[in-house]
User: Fold this.
Amino acid sequence: MEPETKLSQLKTLLNEVFDLYNVIGLLKWDQQVNQPPGGTHNRSHQLSTLYRLYHSRYTSDEIGQLLEDLGLYAAQLEPDSDDARLIKVTTRRYKKLTRLPADLVAEIAQVVGEAHLAWEQARPAADFARFRPYLERIVELRRRQAELFGPNDHIYDSLLDEYEPGLKTADVQAIFSALRTQQVALIQAIKERPQVDDHFLHQHYDEKSQWDFGVEVISRFGYDWNCGRQDKSSHPFTETIGPGDVRITTRFLKDYAASALFSTMHECGHALYEQGIDPGLSRSPLGSGASLAVHESQSRLYENLVGRSHDFWLHYYPRLQAYFSTQLGNVDLETFYRGINKVEPSLIRVEADEATYNLHIMLRLELEIALIEGSIAVKDLPEAWNSRMQEYLGLTPPNDGQGVLQDIHWSSGDIGYFSTYALGNLISAQLWECVNQDIPDLPDQIRRGEFTGLTSWMKEKVHRHGAKFEPQELVQRITGSKIDPAPYLRYLNAKYGEIYGL
Assistant:
């Protein structure tokens, strides 16, 4: 049989595999948006069954044989071609999945399916005991999974690799070590300056008007409503159901307008990435983002480097004032801009300012590693969380709802995920420096509310490639270096130096 025919067979099989994967995404989206609580147990069984089918299809002997047969053929192809990268990425994923028993994959899916409801009930009640048995089971299962991939330099490596292909625990720790000292120094310098005023953000803002303004903004960013929708959920997220169906959610806080505004921009960044992937890569391992850090670079870029910029609000602040004349009619632009960029240690990660945000991530990474190593037991997690919050941010949560229970990720089984947020911040600044070099009038475009140039650049440089390149490789191709904290530190120091007069 000719290699081209075998490659065609492989693509057909992968199409079926990723049809299953996208159905899983649809059920997970529905679980957080529409599903009644009574459906949780049955949904966990559905997800378990589908994950088992996905795993067994992906690790079938037929796919394994085709990959083996295509090895020599792939070596003859242009290395960056779609076909060569498809064979390479599929082979890497196949080798990983074949080390995971289907029963373990199904068990993780079922436990996670039930853990989500337990977390949703435990968080508002600040009742860690209700969630604890589920988290203990998730940690146990993820540790078993990690052990199957030994020997590694660190037991956490294989879990991190799920979200950041090719990156090691030691790599992330080294990046964070270089970042931590300078970021803490900036925070200390800001503490010594007079604090900015943001009281105007903490009052009642009509939910419908918040929704409408967010829709207006992300429509201009380029979000394609013909290929997506927005809903409400307890934790904002983006779910790709397949080509032409990329859904986002947001959430509203009754007395804090910035939450929905910036979470909507954030999720739009994720969605623009997914909507910008070359359609020819869909229904395959290449049809998603390069990694979660690269994904976060897009969400954080649109949320912060654009959405919290002075240039953006020169255009949009009059529009926001028109929506909320009672709340903002007497608040001038400079006061508003400083207010949305206020630096103040806070309890909740998703509401954290840019200067303190990465410390939240470092805390979570350390705790995840300790959980997988076994040096911290789940029962001791609230105390460990509170201790590190005091050490890093000078705050102690008044309850577990505002502490260890605040994030959805552990209930979703996403151990290995958290570092991608901080890494995404770093990549966003690297990309920002490059796009401003390539589009010198970008600030002027943003002041006019024009984002076509920015989004087109991101699509060309980042989005269209999907998962063809590993994150470090992609970042180096675009910026000339691997993930580097220096541009992000330059950005923070320049921005907050101006705001706080440092």
Notes: DSSP finds 22 helices and three strands in the chain. The first strand starts at residue 228 and ends at 232. The chain has a mean pLDDT of 95. The longest helix spans residues 3-33.
